[in-house]
Amino acid sequence: MKKKLKVLVLFDGTSPTTVDQDFSKEMKTKDWKTEANVMAALGALGHTAEHLAIFDDVDLLRQKLETFAPDVLFNLVEQFKNNPGFDQNIVSFFEMQGLPFTGCGSTGLILCKHKGISKKILHYHRIHVPNFVVVPRSQRIARPRQLKFPILVKPVKEEASYGISQASFVENDEQFRERVAFIHEKHESDVIAEEYIDGRELYVSLMGNARLTVFPIRELVFREVPPNEPKIATYSAKWDEEYRKRWGLENQFPEGLDPALVAQVEQTCKRIYRLLTIDGYARIDLRLTAANEIYFIEANPNPHLAEDEDFALSAGKAGLSYPQLIDRIIRQGLKALRD
Fold first, then answer.
1. Taken in order 15, 304, 196, 140, is the CA torsion positive or negative?
2. 3-class DSSP state for residue 326?
3. Which of 59, 112, 239, 298 is the most buried (most CB within 10 A)?
4. Tens of pLDDT along 106-127?
5. Nearest C-alpha neighbor of 6 from the set 80, 65, 93
6. What CATH number should be reported for the domain holding residue 314?
7. d(CA 327, CA 218)
8. Which pLDDT tens digit goes with each residue over 165-189?
9. By the 8 A CB rule, do 156 and 134 touch?
10. Same structural domain for residues 211 and 330?
11. Does the pLDDT at position 339 exceed 50?
12. Are 32 and 26 in contact, with CB atoms under 8 Å apart?
């Protein structure tokens, strides 16, 4: 019999919160699906779970640690003061305090968040990445000649395809300059501009610290997108149900992947996971060209954990029920020996 644990689940607060604030009402809404799913799974496992939302005051965590004394923190925090740039700082705080927590450590979060840095590291280790350039806000906007159209222009640090739309796909210098300037201003962000890789969009879920498990691959299929249109995972392509229906976008387990190719994808993803010092669990986004070349697009440590999202569905396909997956994430967080 595995020991039952006291688990403190940490949420994002969207406005200032109190230490004993109850979020049961929010958890009945669509936006709080992940939090609700995780809390329900912890209940089903027989763990004692309490939740705390952090907005702008880390001291709430100290108070809660004193009153509840959890064995482990289940980290669902992705921002601080509504700023997603601070997710790694919250994790650094856990690390400094020597608190066991689930998911990825601060170094992995920092390296994956900056799309330019993660691609530089992987390119150095001979993993295919699209040709790219980072255009800082302070710099004059000019496309280097070796960067070939079509090009995708994205904020260098945003997640969940935020800041990516059909207008991110640019085919000439005028569009390039316009889109870069738009992201500099509207998102107040440096830009990564990379060559568009035509191919299948694959999502590979992994978990582990020393030993890694790779779950069955998922694919985003673009059924209704005309052949000459770009197939890109825009913000709407991921999150807008109407948009997904209109373009026949569907996440599924891919058909017709050669087992040898699957093995190669798995090996590549394990290398990426280790090279970017990811631990806990992650989803790696790839493009697979018609010539079966594997291109790294981005790595997402601590990906969405809702029951109906790709990560949990892949784990389910591998035979792990949702509560078993949540339990494994916790046990792993307890065991992680972090520097």
1. positive
2. helix
3. 112
4. 999 999 999 999 999 999 999 9
5. 65
6. 3.30.470.20
7. 22
8. 778 899 999 999 999 999 999 888 8
9. yes
10. yes
11. no
12. yes
